[in-house]
Amino acid sequence: MTATNTTTETTTEEILAKPLMQELVKQIRGQDSYGTYRTWSDELLLKPFIVSKERKRKISVDGDVDLVTKARIMAFYRAIAARIEQETGLLGQVIIDLSHEGFGWALVFCGRLLVVAKTLRDAQRFGFDSFEKLDAEGEKLLQKGIDLAKRYPEVGNI
Amino acid sequence: MTATNTTTETTTEEILAKPLMQELVKQIRGQDSYGTYRTWSDELLLKPFIVSKERKRKISVDGDVDLVTKARIMAFYRAIAARIEQETGLLGQVIIDLSHEGFGWALVFCGRLLVVAKTLRDAQRFGFDSFEKLDAEGEKLLQKGIDLAKRYPEVGNI
């Protein structure tokens, strides 16, 4: 777990050990009814969430968002919902609403409170520059959600 | 406009003149780019929202929800959102999220407040017993939405 050098850079191992990343891993393993991923490392499992800018450019945004990408978006927001539940006790419902053009919404709501409301565009290209970015973007949404849940617990509990 | 008898029954004309029904008419006419409905009465326009129990039984819930039915559900919740805006000043976003099996959610949200959150099932059979029921069901959702918006204006304005 200790880095071999003395810089302050975070290793991939350290990032993947973070609570949100572990929750994301859990979401994916939970859907793995056939045990396909049983022997896969967490890093291999989360690799498809990393999409370089170059690769993104090569993905067409003309057609539908394919099922695998949609499942990936769902797993990401479900992991955030699960973390919000752990931190606030509020159970969240996740909705991914995508048009055929890859535009839409990712919503997480508890009671009548929208703890996450993110517009999606070019969802065919869903992905992050690096594991660090994946965790950071997720954490940003998560912290805002926790904030809202703590500020308006009454609305979250309706 | 006056009923020919002296009972307290509401006439269809009176129901169709109600604000929510008029808003629903407006939603449909607004989508009528080719002027197909220009010569249609409001009653004829809203007739497809009335589906008898008998007819419902004959509609299969196995396949996808067809586009016309989906558009009808959308118009209904958009009309509610428009009425909420008129009453509270809060602009609402409407999302209809349906699985291939006709299950899902109808959501209207203002800011981070879900003013309407209704689970849908057998959406292939979307419809109401009568114009009176159509208005009453819509009004029930509407009043609850206005209530929430007035109780939590801060959340609605985020």
Structure description:
The structure is a homodimer of 158-residue chains. With 158 residues, the first copy, chain A, is an alpha+beta fold. Chain A has a single domain (12-156), classed as Protein of unknown function DUF269 (Putative cytoplasmic protein, Orthogonal Bundle). Chain A is built from seven helices and three strands; from the N terminus they run H-H-H-H-H-E-E-E-H-H. Chain A has helices spanning 12-16, 19-30, 42-46, 53-58, 67-88, 131-151, 153-156, and strands at 93-98, 104-110, 113-120. In chain A, strands 1-2-3 form a three-stranded antiparallel sheet. In chain A, a hairpin with a 2-residue loop joins strand 2 and strand 3 (113-120). In chain A, helix 5 (67-88) packs across helix 6. The longest helix of chain A has 22 residues, at 67-88. The N and C termini of chain A lie far apart (43 Å). The mean pLDDT of chain A is 93. Chains A and B meet through strand 1, strand 2 and strand 3 of A and strand 1, strand 2 and strand 3 of B. Chains A, B: It holds the Pfam family DUF269. Chains A, B: This is Putative nitrogen fixation protein.
Shape field of chain A: globular
Strand order of the largest sheet of chain A: 1-2-3
CATH class of chain A: Mainly Alpha
* Oligomer type: homodimer
Structural class of chain A: alpha+beta
> How would a textbook summarize the main sheet of chain A?
3 strands, antiparallel
The CATH architecture of chain A can be given as Orthogonal Bundle
Order of helices and strands of chain A: HHHHHEEEHH
Might you state the CATH topology name of chain A?
Putative cytoplasmic protein
Radius of gyration of chain A: 16 Å
Total number of β-strand segments of chain A? 3
Q: Helical content of chain A, roughly?
A: 40-55%
- Number of separate helices of chain A: 7
Average pLDDT of chain A, rounded to a whole number, is 93
List the uncertain runs of chain A: none
N-end to C-end Cα span of chain A? 43 Å
CATH homologous group name of chain A = Protein of unknown function DUF269
Which chain pair has the greatest contact? A-B, 17 and 17 residues
Count of domain modules of chain A: 1
Protein name (chains A, B): Putative nitrogen fixation protein
Organism (chains A, B): Allocoleopsis franciscana PCC 7113
InterPro entries (chains A, B): NifX-assoc_nitrogen_fix
